[in-house]
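agent> Task received from the user: take the single chain below, predict its 3D structure, and emit structure tokens. No templates, no multimer pairing.
agent> Plan: (1) validate residues, (2) run structure prediction, (3) serialize to tokens, (4) report one or two observations.
agent> Step 1 OK, no nonstandard residues flagged.
tool_call: predict_structure(input=
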Amino acid sequence: MARESWRERAGTSSTDTRASTASWRCSCGKGREGCGSESRAGDEADEHAGSFAKQRLLSLDPEDLAPVLRVSAKSGYDRIAVDLLIAQGRWLASRTFLACTEPSYDPDGRLRAPVIWGQVKIDIEDDAGDFLDADPADLAILELATAIAAMDGYPMGLADILTRIVSADRPLVIDAVQQLFALAGVPIEEG
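)
tool_result: status=success, residues=191
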């Protein structure tokens, strides 16, 4: 059953262009109180939902966050990058990394949080937050995931990233590369 939109609950349609002078008040707004004209209520509700989604995302344990990130992946490359970070585990608890997601709720009320890889790249280059003091090997995994997600136009050389990945993380990288081959339809020879 489809969820009712705020306009349907209010008895207006999306094509109703009449300006409303009615007002509304919400207990979940900025400073615990939001108010404004009814014609702006839907936009405000969307902003509030985004804020709640961000709060919910930040409250999740890494094991609960992993499936949210996985189902939010927008492409095959994105999914491989997310799976690499999930397998490595370091970045799922990073507030700096989580700030590079766009949390929201889908129409069925499920939390979604696609990674904004361009922002991850910018924050890595700017040494933002906990990226500044990150272990170089952990940062290499994040850089590799970013390179995978944005296969074209990423300025950092893949060879440079691979030289900094520690041997303990190499099986994760091999798995991610095998997934890339599969996504491209390239057969992998055993042996």
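agent> Step 4: summary for the user.
The first helix runs from residue 6 to 10.
agent> Done.
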